[in-house]
Amino acid sequence: xxxxxxxxxxxxxxxxxxxxxxxxxxxxxxxxxxxxxxxxxxxxxxxxxxxxxxxxxxxxxxxxxxxxxxxxxxxxxxxxxxxxxxxxxxxxxxxxxxxxxxxxxxxxxxxxxxxxxxxxxxxxxxxxxxxxxxxxxxxxxxxxxxxxxxxxxxxxxxxxxxxxxxxxxxxxxxxxxxxxxxxxxxxxxxxxxxxxxxxxxxxxxxxxxxxxxxxxxxxxxxxxxxxxxxxxxxxx
Length: 236
Hints:
By secondary structure, the protein is mainly alpha-helical. The chain has 6 helices and no strands. The termini are close together.
């Protein structure tokens, strides 16, 4: 492999490794925020039940509970915002660019997943952003038409994000072929399973665990391949 091609591959693996690391942190933060949200839900349910059966004592409990609820809400918002920021950085500055690097190396193999990832994630994010802005605009003056349009855009946005996820799955399959990597094959399969279980309420929590496993494996494999290519153990 020529020096320039080697640099391109190493750059792609480096970006993929960084993306994986950021996504590991993101998944953990999203898991924490989800647990916090569940705690808030149970607290609110318990408080409501107490209000029904507790009478005057209920109001005393609420006064003591309010600081806890406020703290939990703030914690959830902070963690969720940080997680979303990391998610955007990892995808748009590292994951998608890593695929573009591999397109420079093997255009026929990586152009399709790269296009799907860019179409899905970039267009999906812009569509969702537009939808949320329209929804905020619609809620205040209560304009049903704009609200309906925003809901449609939200659905379209999630479909586009799904296309981006499919692009990632294909990307990992192509990486498996390029480097003869069993790990990338496993991660692609796990992403498919994660995608399926997300839509099954009973086991949807399993998707978070699978997602974490995927990006840990990607980080390890990208780092390993980078070291092997640098040392000359692998000639691509």
